[in-house]
Amino acid sequence: MLSYDDKRDFYRMMVNSDVTVTIIDDEANSTLLATCRDLSATGLAIEMSHPLALNTLVKVNIDSANNGVQSLNVKGKVVRVTEETSDSYLIGINISEID
């Protein structure tokens, strides 16, 4: 029997990169730092020190380490929150728009 990961429509790239997360839902447009764990054509998983609420709208920026490659800016919605340790949460984000 195939596992869930084997049924994905898009492959996930394992990434270990710092990202900037801006919460679109709040009036202050709070900006947080996180680490991107993996990325696919439709979503990404980030690791943060505190959780975000499900359905929170966010913008995520991944800076490029290479001047020849453009940074990645996406908008999306929080679809999964998993507590990994007492100070580490894995946040699943469904990408709705790529800038």
From TrEMBL:
Reading the lineage from the top rank, the first entry is Bacteria
Q: Name one Pfam family in it.
A: PilZ
- For the PilZ domain, which residue ranges apply? 6-99
Give the protein name, as stated in the record. Answer: PilZ domain-containing protein
